[in-house]
């Protein structure tokens, strides 16, 4: 239980392990998660350490597993995760794992290459099929009839269309050339055209047309048609949209130019026969090959799926095993080898209470390895600052995280987390007090707590959800405390509960109440004299004129009261630190003046509030009636500035109790006198102690050698309390103490005022709730009849969305941040330094969790 209020006591130990038992022992320590190893080879390059080859082998295995995981996720195959953590494999099992991963990777890569080649072939055949279909449409279009001229160019090297040699197909020539082209052909000449056909990405087609027109100066004829169905890119599996094109041209020069343009735009060209019969024959062959390819592709995909399903069953366990092996060898690289090369030496921080548990784990590791030499764990003496280790469970972990976010506690410093478990949700609830809103928050937190096992197993990468789920116990407590303060404020969705009946009654008749808009109830005649049993009297809900005034006065005062008590508690916490570390100077000349300063000024102001509440009342006669009640703020200002109070009203007294003036003067003088004590006492005493220490270590007459004098000097300066202070310059000590004193004195004023945020946010939350009720829900409640039911349903849904979104989420987040600030700045600044470093043990659980999170990112 002591570790809850302070961090665990840590010990620096030296560990001796036999080489053959080192792997098994480190594996057992990784499962235990209670040892933080130090690097004994800080100057050695990572690539020059003893086990660097094993780490590289693990990296290679991880790479292969990541490749398998990527392929499995690509196919949407679920990976089996039993939640169990297999033990770290023995070193000899690494060879079997490497062989398994190598076989799987090679088989999968071969299947993928074959599948990609088949898909590429399938794509080419599909594109050729569309080319043959679309070009046939181009050639079959109806056109006017023209006559062909014969000439001496019939034996040209260019490809010629059949229609150019067949009188029955002269209409196709006219369609391709157009009327102007036909008229341009001279008698005695046979016009010869070449053409190319292919496919191109649809988005590149406009630029492709412009380039053809400009580069060929309009001497080409382009026809294109879209392929309706998207095609699959074999390299990445994306769906792409393409178009078929055919380009007609005349001459070798244009042919070369067209092909270069097609190559530049990454268009794929395919051979297209000139004769319709050849095109039909080729299309039939293409369709047959496509059907065969579909069959082969299906078989290939089935084989790939079977391989991936088999791998998915063991992938999670393989990842865990490889990461454990890698972590073990990475840790072994931190060790030193002795001269005989047979023993590994390590240094580690361990919790003092767990040394026996660690020794048992080392024995288990030795037995597993079959070594006959037991490991040796020796505790070492050190002057280094140990790491800070606070044991937590699933309940306290979130509260400890709030403290560590400010700064990790110094070693054995008082831990604010156990006190924050109560103060944090309570101060939040003071700002968020509403029974309805608190119930929503508490139910949400309770749902996450009840379903925490299932929700934790989902392991989502949604950062916002992970934050909510990690703080489920904080959310639940904040909701419960908000319900309590909501009952105190008697506030539920801006309305009140009349549980016990109001202790006020009306002395007016019905006609007076109905005819007058504003009426005032007198505490002397209309109040029963006994307060409402629990919380606010519901009568204040209908007091539209002075409801806010009453709530303001109440919430402002309780904010100051809670704030001053919270700060005093923080100062008292510093007393525990000073006494534990035996810092007598800080105890006498920091803690006591700070506490006196806070008590005599601000706690006295709190006492004045209680005196005012007790002595003055509307039912009392003068001088203790409500008219004679002084302002606490004015009284406090007059007290600090030594001002003479203004004359009170007739039959009223200037002071609230006898001797108040003299007590206030004494309190201010003593509080001001504490300031120079906080400022100068500690530095002067340190300076005097150093002076005395220097006089004691002067060379002694008759010393036989300088070595003896040096030895006495070392012994005299060793082991005093506050060794770090002695290393600091006196000027720095004076400056540090001045800053600390000024910060405390001014901070006492500003921090007290800072707690007024409790009042401000509480008021804002209540007013927002009332605005939503008045301007949204009340509109639906005023509707009547069947239409009114429909309107009320819609209005209620809108009101519920605004309530949850604005008042619970946004206002809740605002109150959470303000509460966090009150703890970090106003509370923890009184005693908490937060200058330590966290204990980071070698733990397989943490390594696997971090590795999984990194893989998801």
TrEMBL record:
| Pfam families per record | V_ATPase_I (PF01496)
InterPro entries from the xrefs?
V-ATPase_116kDa_su, V-type_ATPase_116kDa_su_euka
Gene Ontology cellular component list = early endosome; plasma membrane; synaptic vesicle; vacuolar proton-transporting V-type ATPase, V0 domain
Keyword Ribonucleoprotein found: no
UniProt subcellular location: Membrane
A single GO molecular-function term is: ATPase binding
Membrane topology listed for this record: Multi-pass membrane protein
Which residues span the membrane? 421-449, 469-489, 558-576, 591-611, 662-681, 758-781, 787-810
Q: Which family does it belong to?
A: Belongs to the V-ATPase 116 kDa subunit family.
Q: Spell out the protein name for this chain.
A: V-type proton ATPase subunit a
Its source organism is Drosophila yakuba
